[in-house]
Amino acid sequence: MRRQGFTLIEVLIAFGIFAVVAGFVLVTIVGMFKSFHQGERMLDKRQSERMFLQRLNKEISSVTRISYPEYRFRGTNYSFYFIFSKEDSLAESGYLYDQETLSLQRFYEEPPDYDWGTYAQKDTVLKNLVSCRFSYSNGTVWQDSWEEDRGVFPKTVKINFRFKEEPSEQEFIVNIPISQ
């Protein structure tokens, strides 16, 4: 007599093999989605970093000497402020590393009121920063601060920053064209 159908053991073995194969496929698909989302986050972070550096480079390259008040550039280890020319007017800008929120804040005002403490706009330009430091050079020496009463602008501004989940610090140097 010929058997018709499968035994319970055969069905359980087939189901077990199917479950193992489906598990491997599912783990692979979940891993691919995680990698995709991680890559997307890295791309977003790099995009915002690139936009910040382009904006900063454009603004600092447009730093201008104005007659009143005399020279308008001031910097510390965690912040700097300056007046720059924007198209046919002047604007005031500042960057401050906020250690509580681990973010770099940008302050902006047009036209400038020549007061480093008040700004019309504030936005976050970089997030998830473990560290961010500014330094300034007169062409020979790097310094942690630059006071506006020196009568000259620094020749360059250096920014060192590191994001969370990144092993090394990045460095960005911007030249100021009108420095003496």
Distinctive features:
9 strands; rod-shaped; 30% helix; 180 residues; four-stranded antiparallel sheet; five-stranded antiparallel sheet; alpha+beta
Would you kindly provide a written description of the structure presented here, covering whatever features stand out?
By secondary structure, the protein is an alpha+beta fold. It has one domain (45-175). The chain is 30% helix and 33% strand. It contains 1 helix and 9 strands. The protein has one helix spanning 8-61; strands at 73-75, 79-86, 89-98, 103-109, 121-126, 129-137, 142-143, 156-163, 170-175. The strands form 2 sheets. The chain has a 5-stranded antiparallel beta sheet with strand order 1-2-3-4-5, with helices on one face. The chain is rod-shaped.
Structure summary:
The chain is of the alpha+beta class and 180 residues long.
- Reading side by side through the largest sheet, how are the strands ordered? 1-2-3-4-5
Shape, per Cα inertia axes: rod-shaped
Q: Roughly what percent helix?
A: 25-40%
Number of domains: 1
Spans of at least 5 consecutive residues with low confidence? none
The count of helical stretches stands at 1
Global mean pLDDT: 86
Encode the helix/strand succession as letters: HEEEEEEEEE
Q: Classify the oligomer.
A: single chain
The N- and C-terminal alpha carbons lie at a distance of 105 Å
Secondary structure class reads: alpha+beta
Radius of gyration computed on alpha carbons: 28 Å
Work out the number of β strands: 9
Note the topology.
Blueprint (H helix, E strand, L loop, with lengths): L7 H54 L11 E3 L3 E8 L2 E10 L4 E7 L11 E6 L2 E9 L4 E2 L12 E8 L6 E6 L5
